[in-house]
Write a structure and sequence with these properties.
Blueprint: H1 18-36, H2 44-49, E1 50-55, E2 66-72, H3 80-85, E3 88-92, E4 103-106, E5 115-119, E6 122-130, E7 137-141, E8 144-151, E9 156-161, E10 166-174
Parallel strand pairs: 1-3, 6-8
Antiparallel strand pairs: 1-5, 2-3, 2-4, 4-5, 6-10, 7-8, 7-9, 9-10
Length: 186
Amino acid sequence: MGDAFRKVRSGDPLAIPANTFNAFIDAAIAHRQQQNVGGGRQSAYRQASIVLVRNDSGTDVGQFGVLGISGVVFDPATALEGFQGRVALSGVTPVAGTHEARFVIAAEPIKSGDIGTAYIAGARQVQVSVADANHRFAEIVGGDAAKLASGVAGTAHIIWKEAGTGTKWAIVRFGFSIIPHAGNCA
């Protein structure tokens, strides 16, 4: 197989392999997202907490939905420039025992197979299945891309939530090592 990014000359037949075309689309989406987020060039801080994610879950994910990180879009062994250019992750429906502390929260609705923006760290709105009103932590729910679940421990710290139990809107701080100690557990 030849060079997927070989330039053509005027008059040459144009045959674009699918992987080349898809790389162009991914690059165009990444460029558009970089231009649209924050009205221009992103600061290093903002770029660090917002990443591109390809929704490989098989279903559409709504804004503030949760995707487990399963890998990268650009493998450095085959697409080093893409890998170095921007953090672009592959996201799947969270799996218990695999995606704890390895998840993103969608910044926008992301259709299955599409690339969109997601938060990988910081304080974000998300729905949480609250089992006990005193829980101060949250974690992924295996098989559920719509919300997190509350608990006495978890990789997301609940800094605010609606009162009561059940599915509640919350603001969580995540993407950092959170190790609860006796003083933080409910």
